[in-house]
Write a structure and sequence with these properties.
The structure holds two protein chains of two kinds. Chain A is an all-alpha fold. Chain A has a single domain (6-143), classed as Globin-like (Orthogonal Bundle), CATH 1.10.490.10. Chain A is 69% helix and 0% strand. Chain A is built from eight helices and no strands. Chain A has helices at residues 6-16, 21-35, 52-57, 59-77, 82-85, 87-96, 102-119, 125-143. The longest helix of chain A is centred in the middle third of the chain and has 19 residues, at 59-77. The radius of gyration of chain A is 15 Å and the shape is globular. In chain B, helix 4 runs antiparallel to helix 5. The two termini of chain B are 22 Å apart. Chain B has five helices and no strands. By secondary structure, chain B is mainly α. The chains are: A mainly alpha, B mainly alpha. At the A-B interface, helix 2, helix 3 and helix 7 of A face helix 4 and helix 5 of B. Chain B: Residues 1-99 form the Globin domain.
Amino acid sequence: MVHFTAEEKAIITSLWAKVNVEETGGEALGRLLVVYPWTQRFFDNFGNLSSASAIMGNPKVKAHGKKVLSSLGEAVTHMDDLKDAFAHLSELHCDRLHVDPENFRLLGNVLVIVLAHHFGREFTPQVQAAWKKLMSAVAIALGHKYH
Amino acid sequence: FPHLGACLDEAQLLGHGRRMLEAVGVAVRHMDHLRAALSPLADLHGQVLRVDPANFPLLIQCFQVLLASHLQDEFTVEMQAAWDKFLTGVAVVLTEKYR
């Protein structure tokens, strides 16, 4: 199990407190769909995904992005027991959604870039390291129930 | 980077980083002929340095984090898509001569 130091937890929670979950979620999911277009395969019923601006402005993308990022908020408050916290979502993504775990890593990477984009110089190497560690741990937790 | 030792010397780090960025500059100027332009570097990485191919995505990620945090508003989704595609293409060329 991944262990987070007190310092890492402080870095993660203090940045998270300043994150606009609704906007950041939509931004991250939108960027995933634009930068890695094959990920659009999971969102056939989302309507217009024909261009970057269509994707970034798509209300379903924004809504789903908010949902995904809210789950990540769960991760921030359960850093010591991510496997349990994400057990249900792991089963969902494997058994019903059939999402390859590689996509969790892609989204995690996109989110780190979105955070860097928002926070600028405040997103120091230490902050990046802490968040990258959390994203990797969440990806592992989400893949845990795969069979 | 064994030649940098356990304690990273800032000057060496910056110097090495600069060399890498200059190589990215070469790639930018030869986007349609990456294989030819980066051939010597592909030889170096594949036969001499033998950098683990898994490291390229890590560096690409760090590079984009840097672009995002420095450029902020300018780092639009289109810019991210273009740079991700470009850097991935560079990494493919640099790891093509591994075997």
